[in-house]
Amino acid sequence: MHNADNERPDPHTDDDEIVTWWGLVIEGYLATQDRLMGEIADKFGLPPAQFDILLRLVRSPEHRMPMTRLAKEAALTSGGFTKVADRMVAADLIRRQPCDTDRRVTYATLTDHGRDVANRARRVCADTLRRTVLTPLGTEAAFALANAMRTLRAVNGDRPA
Amino acid sequence: MHNADNERPDPHTDDDEIVTWWGLVIEGYLATQDRLMGEIADKFGLPPAQFDILLRLVRSPEHRMPMTRLAKEAALTSGGFTKVADRMVAADLIRRQPCDTDRRVTYATLTDHGRDVANRARRVCADTLRRTVLTPLGTEAAFALANAMRTLRAVNGDRPA
DNA sequence: GGAATATATCTTGCGAGGAAGATGTTTCCG
DNA sequence: CGGAAACATCTTCCTCGCAAGATATATTCC
């Protein structure tokens, strides 16, 4: 029934501990992220990909960005991003704006409605993060969290492009 | 051009900082996880869902578990899990084993080949984690990471099933 | 000017997973 | 015993995103 107490079938038990440890860590953060995105989806009808795009656009000068650059930053392929953009255009969040000086590029530009939704969703997101992450952890642990992340990015290939 | 230096169009700049902070944290861990799963997929042909299932089975008594329980632990719907199981049966990683005492339940049972793949993949996974996460972070930071995760799980709904 | 290369976007087909419903099995209760 | 409710699994249809290829435009070199 219980062969974990006295048996040791293979010498890789440490492996299992490490993999389990990492699994729990990832699971915890993913669960938090899922709840957060679920809230955004419920309240604003924004799937994660669309919310991410809105955040990037509302931070951009003139609230616009070339499609390709946006796709790259959101870690989407151009083909995949086309359909995300289609849905966002249909929802009146962005519009496609041809570039005057380079007719290859199309800007994704935030509509007034899109800017409004982005700001409100960002506010809700920040409030929830404060309540469910920052406050419980405390600033010190939150800082450690970001530091650990920075270490991971530095060790592994941090490809900024 | 640069309206971030001297302008402050809305009073929610702190919101943006928090959301950005969390986005970077999530992105860092997800990138690590993606690389890890990419390695497992490349070397063993195991998609993340299948690898997760294998780990749970290899830890289980008699290397088997009822389908529904497995689906629940892997955060999949029963319908979605059926097809994952189909692929794993086709790859000779698991087989479906009817239960003697309750003819509703079907066990997912690890095949010999499945057990072998699971052990080798787990070893690779643990080695990579040691090299790219545990060693760079140090045991203290790694401990802090797990602690922060535990806090998050405690604050938000920790459903132990 | 005009061909070759690079860039930006869109279209088609595929795999993964979820939701709703169908089927067969067990358990509960009169 | 016999029917109703709960349960486990599977089937069908849907959405989402990626990969590969097609099309159109820009830039560069001759």
From TrEMBL, chains A, B:
The keyword DNA-binding applies. The keyword DNA-binding applies. One of its GO terms (molecular function) is DNA binding. PROSITE patterns: HTH_MARR_2 (PS50995). Keywords: DNA-binding. Residues 1-154 form the HTH marR-type domain. GO terms for biological process: response to stress. InterPro entries: HTH_MarR-typ, MarR/SlyA-like, WH-like_DNA-bd_sf, WH_DNA-bd_sf. It comes from the Bacteria. This is DNA-binding transcriptional regulator, MarR family. It comes from Goodfellowiella coeruleoviolacea.
